């Protein structure tokens, strides 16, 4: 073959790769340019290219759009991908996206790989908004991939327990075993087996053939020994479904039950017995294989005599009410010469005793069977997933291949006719309707009908729940629809004049603040902005769509819900969706009595990859402000709604409303990683500001001088303007000496509990349930550092939350005493000093028989003031320590508790020296003391000797545990 022929052959082969996919390669550069400029889905991309804005997403992912030779491109860079490699991606218009996906997935050189690998392949060269969801749907609807999916990749449905039968031989299961090789001398090749559902009593008959007549004759022979059952469960074999068998059932009034095809687990009782039967036969007839039928009676006796694991009794005991005399009984009688005296009683008395014994035995067996069924279902359902099909759904069925019945393959698609029972479905197979179990079915996604079917999905139904506090008064809920929901404003109702400015400022200071507020009045509004600094992304652990079960909504709320949705549409918060994901909406009651629409994202959160972005520590913030004289708090307006959703992940936020399916264009409340995204954005915006900290959307400015405060305030507003973030004026507090922040009141170098929280604690009613106890402990526990002996006083209440304590407990005097004492101590608690990192910390600790306590102090103006209290109840093991060891433990625990303030700086431990002296001498005596000694070596401290009477704070803590 010459070179020219080889070239022609190669060219034809390459063209074949593309022509079999009907891909149009006759697309010019000008066609792409024209399509990019007219594509409505690329409006945001074109705007970003014109503004040359860089977008930050994920963990330090950077992307931006640009034009090159008239074509729109995207540059993307991530430290997690190819060692921070920079990708140049062509932005694909909507009309050519199918071509790209077809070439990346369906082509012979593509190999029908999964969603992730196909996405990575496309993203290496191309990009468009929503690319990941588009590729996911494309791969999911691939006909070849759906037909060749391994059986194990389709999760089984939860186990449906069989009904418990309490009457012996009311329901029996039958099956045929064979052909068995070798044929016996009597010519038998098959075994007809029968098992009773109530007692697990088995019967087995050897047969020469399995014609319907022979099987029917053998069954009737069994019935003459055990009685005629009411129901017979069998597979779909012709021996059990023939007209003769139906006639026998009619004559004997027996209801015939059949399993679904290719699902032997439905008749699992007899199938499991068949396995045991064959194994026992193989072992018993190993020496004489052709006489296996002679061993059947002995085999059945052995099986009937052994206790069943699920029942706890043997079939003989459940059927006869006594233990039969078997080989073990005979052997014992021979070895021991035991002679049982006959129990003489009347026939009537014997019948009564037998009836009572059988009833009690069956009752115990039923209890054991319920336990074993529940246990088996628990383990089975761990790897199961509920899958429900509705009429007209297209499904693939796992059936044997045409050439080999042992090989299974997906066939179809076929239409679902109806659901039968819990896990069975009637399927239309080219005109013949047959019943199949759900484990043999897999939903088929038709690429051409996918979008249409989603638009008409049953998910577009009203889904709503109402969350209300316990013991609410029905009169509190007004049915006035104007008051039910806070309708979001379309026009700004607040201005910079609504900012709360301190009235204690001098006229010059007031002018300084007014000029700053006037300069930045554009960002002081109750309408949320839309930042370009960050986008929220949702990465999932599975591609299976999440849908929530809809809830009913009260009629009184429906119009209000619709009005809220309309307002959100007008504000560009949400948009219509055709996503396969759907979460329910929830109406939550706010403290002011109004209601708020939220979305229940709990199912979505369970499959969301966790974002490990660290959250701010309030203690670190408070440790910076001890010397500050001026404070300003800025609260962003609808902070989450000022962050846009990544276009590729909008579909994941879809939710169900009365008017259809919608998705968020901004980051909604309730998402698992929303706080992490918001905190990462604030960290970027406020980076480098020495006097500003933030906890989510609460920004705190703290300065020692007035000049610094005005400068810092102007800088923060400028950065918010650049980030296109707005602050709500009515929630901004400017230039105060003391203000409320994160549930505390700070200023003048001190920190105290919030007055409103203290009022709520003062008026807290007596708890009546475990939930109310936990709620009260959670409320008051937020301020436990203000209570010297919190752990000790709260013990009677915390004991009520233990496992085993009834939900409604007995309220005793000790509980009332602890309840009132906690409230009183917090209401009259001492004021704590804010930690001053420029001053030396002082640690005091002490131990008693049942607890240890510590106090962190600092000296101001010659006096020592507490910064924080801590106490701990000793465990049973720790109570066994010697007195001196408890003193050592108190010091080590105190340093661990206050590590945030003590590590890496010099501090003072006020003690009587005995614990540290003992630790230095006895540190090699055991491993525990050695670990404590090594722990103390990482701290730089000096000891100051004090008398035990002077160590009042820590001593008080330890002795009240």
From TrEMBL:
Residues of the Integrase catalytic domain: 164-323
CDD domains noted in UniProt: RNase_HI_RT_Ty3, RT_LTR
Residue ranges occupied by any Reverse transcriptase domain in the UniProt entry: 569-746
UniProt KW keywords: Endonuclease, Hydrolase, Nuclease, Nucleotidyltransferase, RNA-directed DNA polymerase, Transferase
One GO term (biological process): DNA integration
GO molecular function list: endonuclease activity; hydrolase activity; nucleic acid binding; RNA-directed DNA polymerase activity
Domain of life: Eukaryota
SUPFAM superfamilies: DNA/RNA polymerases, Ribonuclease H-like
Pfam families the record matches: Integrase_H2C2 (PF17921), RT_RNaseH (PF17917), rve (PF00665), RVT_1 (PF00078)
PROSITE patterns noted in UniProt: INTEGRASE (PS50994), RT_POL (PS50878)
Protein's UniProt name: Retrovirus-related Pol polyprotein from transposon 17.6
Organism for this UniProt entry: Pinctada imbricata (Atlantic pearl-oyster)
């Amino acid at each position: 073959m010459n070179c020219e022929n080889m070239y022609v052959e190669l060219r034809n082969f390459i063209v074949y790769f593309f022509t079999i996919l009907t891909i149009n390669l006759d697309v010019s550069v000008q066609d792409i340019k024209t399509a990019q400029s007219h594509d409505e889905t690329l409006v945001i991309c074109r705007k970003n290219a014109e503004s040359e804005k860089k977008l930050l997403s994920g963990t330090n992912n950077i992307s931006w759009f640009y034009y090159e030779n008239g074509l729109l491109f995207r540059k993307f860079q991530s430290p997690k991908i190819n060692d921070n490699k920079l990708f140049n991606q062509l932005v694909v218009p909507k009309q050519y996206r199918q071509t790209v996906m077809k070439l990346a997935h369906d082509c012979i050189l593509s190999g029908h790989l999964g969603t992730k690998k196909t996405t990575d392949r496309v993203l290496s060269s191309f990009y468009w908004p929503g690319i990941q969801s588009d590729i996911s749907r494309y791969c999911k609807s691939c006909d070849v991939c759906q037909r060749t999916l391994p059986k194990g990749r389709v999760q089984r449905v939860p186990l449906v327990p069989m009904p418990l039968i309490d009457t012996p031989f009311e329901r029996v299961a039958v099956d045929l075993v064979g052909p068995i090789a070798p044929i016996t001398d009597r010519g038998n090749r098959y075994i007809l087996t029968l098992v009773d559902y109530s007692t697990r009593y088995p019967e087995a008959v050897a047969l020469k053939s399995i014609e319907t007549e022979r099987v029917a004759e053998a069954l009737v022979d069994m019935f003459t020994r055990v009685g005629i059952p009411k129901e017979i469960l069998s597979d779909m074999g012709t021996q059990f479904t023939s007209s003769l068998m139906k006639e026998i059932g009619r004559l004997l009034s027996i209801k015939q039950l059949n399993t679904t095809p290719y699902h032997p687990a439905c008749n699992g009782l007899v199938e499991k017995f068949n396995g045991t039967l064959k194994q026992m036969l193989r072992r018993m007839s190993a020496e004489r294989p052709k006489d296996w039928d002679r061993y059947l009676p002995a085999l059945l006796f052995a099986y009937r005599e052994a206790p069943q694991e699920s029942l706890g009794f043997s079939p003989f005991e459940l059927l006869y009410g006594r233990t039969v005399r078997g080989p073990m009984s005979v052997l014992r009688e021979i070895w021991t010469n035991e002679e049982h005296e006959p129990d003489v009683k009347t026939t009537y008395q014997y019948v009564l005793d037998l009836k009572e014994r059988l009833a009690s035995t069956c009752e115990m067996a039923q209890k054991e069977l319920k336990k074993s069924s529940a246990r088996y279902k628990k383990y089975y359902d761990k790897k199961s997933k509920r899958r429900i099909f509705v009429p007209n759904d297209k499904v693939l069925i796992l059936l044997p291949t045409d050439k080999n019945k042992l090989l299974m393959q997906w066939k179809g698609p076929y239409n679902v006719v109806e659901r039968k029972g819990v896990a069975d479905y009637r399927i239309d197979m080219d005109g013949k309707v047959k019943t199949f179990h759900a484990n043999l079915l897999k939903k088929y996604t038709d690429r051409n009908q996918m979008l249409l079917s989603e638009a008409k999905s049953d998910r577009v139904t009203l889904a709503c729940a109402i969350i209300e506090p316990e013991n609410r008064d029905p009169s509190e809920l007004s049915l006035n629809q104007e008051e039910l929901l806070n309708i979001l404003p379309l026009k700004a109702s607040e201005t910079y004049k609504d900012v709360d400015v301190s009235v204690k400022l001098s006229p010059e200071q007031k002018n300084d603040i007014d000029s700053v507020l006037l300069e930045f009045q554009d960002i002081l509004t109750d309408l949320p902005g839309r930042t370009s600094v960050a986008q929220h992304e949702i990465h999932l652990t599975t591609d299976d769509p999440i849908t929530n079960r809809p809830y009913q909504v009260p009629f009184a709320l429906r119009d209000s819900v619709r009005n809220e949705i309309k307002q959100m549409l007008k504000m560009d918060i949400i948009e219509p969706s055709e996503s396969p994901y759907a979460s329910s909406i929830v109406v939550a009651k706010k403290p002011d009595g109004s209601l708020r629409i939220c979305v229940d994202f709990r199912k979505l959160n369970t499959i969301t990859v966790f974002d490990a972005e660290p959250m701010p520590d309030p203690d670190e913030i408070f440790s910076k402000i001890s010397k500050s004289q001026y404070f300003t708090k800025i609260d962003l307006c609808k902070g989450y709604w000022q962050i846009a959703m990544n276009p590729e992940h909008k579909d994941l936020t879809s939710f169900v409303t009365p008017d259809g399916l919608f998705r968020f264009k901004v980051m909604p409340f309730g998402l698992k990683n929303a706080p992490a995204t918001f905190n990462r954005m604030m960290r970027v915006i406020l980076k480098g500001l020495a006097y500003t900290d933030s906890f989510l959307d609460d920004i705190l400015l703290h300065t020692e001088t007035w000049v610094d405060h005005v400068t810092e305030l102007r800088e923060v507003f400028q950065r918010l303007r650049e980030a296109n973030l707005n602050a709500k004026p009515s929630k901004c507090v400017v230039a105060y000496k003391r203000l409320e922040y994160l549930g505390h009141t700070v200023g003048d170098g001190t920190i105290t509990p919030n007055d409103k929280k203290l009022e709520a604690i003062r008026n807290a009613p007596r708890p009546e349930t475990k939930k109310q106890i936990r709620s009260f402990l959670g409320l008051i526990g937020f301020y436990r550092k203000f209570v010297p002996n919190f752990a000790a006083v709260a013990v009677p209440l915390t004991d009520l939350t233990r496992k085993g304590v009834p939900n409604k407990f007995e309220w005793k005097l000790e509980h009332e005493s602890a309840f009132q004492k906690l409230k009183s101590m917090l209401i009259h608690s001492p004021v704590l000093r804010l930690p001053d990192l420029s001053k030396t910390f002082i640690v005091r600790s002490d131990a008693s028989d049942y607890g240890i306590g510590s106090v962190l102090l600092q000296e101001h103006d010659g006096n020592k003031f507490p910064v924080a209290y801590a106490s701990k109840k000793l465990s049973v093991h720790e109570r066994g320590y010697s007195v001196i060891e408890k003193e050592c433990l108190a010091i080590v625990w105190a340093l661990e508790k206050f590590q945030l303030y003590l590590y890496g700086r010099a501090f003072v431990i006020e003690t009587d020296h005995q614990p540290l002296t003992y630790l230095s001498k006895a540190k090699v005596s055991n491993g525990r003391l050695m670990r404590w000694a090594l722990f103390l070596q990482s701290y730089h401290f000096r000891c100051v000797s004090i008398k035990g009477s002077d160590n009042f704070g820590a001593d008080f803590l330890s002795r009240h545990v």
